[in-house]
């Protein structure tokens, strides 16, 4: 056992350093936060790969319970028993936890701090865990594997978030329509903004996200197509495929696009971009009409994400 997680010559137990891990989810903060809020969600994801959660008790209130029973493939069960110390809806959670062995003997305590923030294309979740050993001999190996355990646990959370949004599995056929209009004014001439919208190199500066690029191409002309495909941490693949129907240089773009999440088609949209020059400034007006398919719960995330992208255009124009 290393000194970092063992005992010093003086007999004082050395505690491990805090664990920090982050993940970006293709979902709104409200959805990711909600995945911590109820037993039916927590049971679907709060355990490493090969483990399951047969029982959980979640009371999202200050002092409320957060108790999870993790079952190993051999049938052994370990409880994590905690209480909520801090709750800021859709923003932050702090949970004080105690992990026990199969005989319910305490092994170590862990303070879990979870922060949720908006990022381009979704929600960033930052987790920090601070440990204190009660039984170092039993606790040290478990804590040593915490980073890998969290990696596979967050893979499960990613799948649960997708399920909550209706972006995975088989669901009843349905269509929900939504329309939004957004505007931004940039301190740049109209030709510069047009280039940002229609040139692949210029667009790649802002039409991107915290994912691994799988495929990108664009051909902005009447009948031309565009595709952007990315793989998110956890394996989810998002796929944007567009066709251009109207292209008026420095004035207007009209196109339709289909979004897939993995193999599931989640939406079909019609988008119109209009540019209005005002001297050295340009106003960009975006109107989008979307059909969200087969249980996919957009809940305003497309409008919010488009707003982030419009802000990213502005940042790219400053380069």
Strand content: over 45%
Extended strand count: 14
State the end-to-end distance: 51 Å
Largest sheet: 7 strands, antiparallel
The Rg value, from CA coordinates, equals: 24 Å
Counted by DSSP, the helix tally is 7
- Mean pLDDT over the residues: 91
| Uncertain runs | 1-10
Order of helices and strands: EHHEEEEEEHHEHHEEEEEEH
Structural class designation: alpha+beta
Shape: elongated
- State the helical fraction: 10-25%
* Strands side by side in the biggest sheet: 1-7-6-5-4-3-2
Keywords:
45% strand, 7-stranded antiparallel β-sheet, 319 residues, 7 helices, alpha+beta, disordered N terminus
Plain-language structure description:
This protein is an alpha+beta fold and 319 residues long. 22% of the residues lie in helices and 45% in strands. It contains 7 helices and 14 strands. It has helices at 29-34, 39-45, 136-144, 146-164, 190-198, 200-203, 301-317; strands spanning 19-25, 52-58, 65-71, 77-88, 92-100, 106-119, 122-133, 175-186, 212-218, 225-231, 237-248, 252-261, 264-278, 281-293. The strands form 2 sheets. Strands 1-7-6-5-4-3-2 form a 7-stranded antiparallel β-sheet. A 7-stranded antiparallel β-sheet has the order 8-14-13-12-11-10-9, covered by helices on one side. The radius of gyration is 24 Å and the shape is elongated. The N and C termini lie far apart (51 Å).
